Amino acid sequence: MPTGPLLLALCAAFVHAGWNLLLSRARDSEQATATAAAIGAVAFAPVAALTWDVSAKAVPYAAISGALELVYLVLLARAYQEGELSLVYPVARGSAPVLVLLFTVVVLGASPPAAAVGGIALVATGVVLVRGGRAGADPRHFRLALAIAVAIASYTLIDKQGLKHAAPLPYLELAVAPPALVYLLITKRRKGIAPVKADTLLAGLGIFGSYALALAAIKLASTEEVPSVQAVRESSVVIAVILARVILHERVTRARVAGAAAVMAGVAAIALA
Fold first, then answer.
1. N or C terminus of the chain with fewer C-beta within 10 Å?
2. Is the full-model pTM beyond 0.85?
């Protein structure tokens, strides 16, 4: 892979892991997530407007995706309020592509390549290692992470269809901005609005920025290199676990690190397949 797409994909991985870290370490992750999502939607609105190319056919997909995005934001904020980044992120991020693949196999009748089957096995092994044994993570946090994965897989499948009728960034704005503002209003009513701190501002920019960096990497890459770009992006799983250990001082065991690495390798295998 050329240096340009590789560096952009790595930057996208770091930014994605970074904004999750910032929301996870917030005193109130629900307030921080609501504020950050709204900031991101407002900040990228001019870019979306300047590059606007959205067919009317994309609107129903964006509306359904938006409802799923709202579920995702609520679940993510709750998971980070209660659980650990080093558990929630690998399980949610790693399980979602597996669920998408299983949907295409079970519902659409697709035949997965052997590499994809191996990737599923790696992700499953990694998730078990990240979860830990009987003395591992709280089952509630694990279930929240899996619920997040279901939300991600669901809006991913919807977005695959919606993006056939719209440019990526305007579509993202159309799908994410309404639920972000709705979640902000819900959180305001329940808890008030948190002051905008540097972490919240950076997280908001990162939510959209990581997506923009990934798009830039894909645009620079050739068609044959796109799966490699997607695979490199999955390094965010290991990055997030390392950041959780170094910055959040979470008790990250060797088994959890190994599990995160297995999840990353499994998702990369699915992307390359």
1. C
2. yes
For tokens 């992120």, name the residue. 89
Q: How many helices (H) and strands (E) does the chain have?
A: 11, 0
Taking the CA atoms of residue 118, residue 124, residue 128 and residue 130 in that order, the dihedral angle to the nearest 10 degrees is 90
Amino acid at 167: A
Tens of pLDDT along the chain (273 residues) come to 677 878 888 899 999 999 999 999 998 999 999 999 999 999 999 999 999 999 999 999 999 999 999 999 999 999 999 999 999 999 998 888 888 888 888 877 777 788 888 888 988 898 888 887 555 567 888 999 999 999 999 998 899 899 899 998 999 999 999 999 999 999 988 877 767 889 999 999 999 999 889 888 877 877 777 777 778 888 999 999 999 999 999 988 888 999 999 988 888 888 887
